[in-house]
């Protein structure tokens, strides 16, 4: 699961090497563009690791909807967060995940392979774009990137690895934390990067 959450940090399809696939849909074309752009950054040895992480994060910020990811990861209790608590949680969650998984994600760029698959699903304004991820050991996973359209761009709001959802992985932890520590206590744990790796 750690490799999956590394994908969340740096948007897996953007970090790992992928051959070009003739894309039939703009959502697939965007994912291919993401792959090419971030792969170039990840393999730029003239930059230090912190510089590469920063550049990749800045690029990913354009395509990852952290607010929606956070809301889905928290689930029903999200409606009880104040506007300030939501802002604080989103920032803390983003910083925690980047801190926990950025190194392993960059290392994975050299070893793993991912290819876009021709299949995709469409439901109104929501789209699932699929890829196949192969680790250095040869194990393969299917990764689904869930997106929605905003103008001409597509924002990522969830990942699924072999059917396991990113937001579901974290929701169990957040729900338990909120019961034990309340909303402010949960935000404090996230700010302190106190959640365990999955």
TrEMBL record:
InterPro entries per the UniProt record, alphabetical: MlaC/ttg2D, Tgt2/MlaC_sf
Pfam family, one: MlaC
Transmembrane segments: none
Stored PANTHER family: INTERMEMBRANE PHOSPHOLIPID TRANSPORT SYSTEM BINDING PROTEIN MLAC
The species this protein was found in: Neisseria sicca ATCC 29256
Signal peptide bounds: 1-17
Alphabetized UniProt keyword annotations: Signal
Protein name in UniProt: Toluene tolerance protein Ttg2D
Highest taxon in the source lineage: Bacteria
């Amino acid at each position: 699961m750690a490799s999956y959450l590394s994908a969340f940090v740096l948007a897996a399809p953007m970090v790992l090497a992928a051959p070009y696939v003739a894309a039939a849909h703009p959502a697939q074309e965007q994912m291919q563009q993401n792959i090419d752009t971030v792969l170039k950054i990840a393999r730029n040895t003239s930059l230090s690791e912190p510089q590469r992480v920063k550049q990749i994060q800045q690029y990913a910020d354009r395509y990852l909807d952290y607010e929606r990811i956070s809301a889905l990861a928290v689930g029903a209790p999200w409606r009880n967060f104040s506007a300030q608590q939501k802002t604080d949680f989103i920032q803390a969650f983003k910083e925690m995940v980047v801190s926990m998984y950025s190194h392993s994600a960059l290392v994975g760029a050299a070893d793993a392979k991912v290819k876009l698959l021709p299949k995709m699903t469409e439901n109104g304004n929501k789209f699932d774009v699929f890829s196949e991820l192969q680790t250095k050991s040869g194990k393969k996973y299917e990764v689904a990137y869930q997106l929605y359209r905003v103008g001409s761009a597509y924002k990522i709001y969830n990942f699924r690895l072999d059917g396991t959802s990113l937001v579901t992985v974290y929701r169990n932890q957040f729900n338990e934390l909120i019961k034990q520590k309340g909303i402010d206590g949960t935000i404090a744990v996230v700010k302190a990067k106190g959640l365990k790796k999955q």
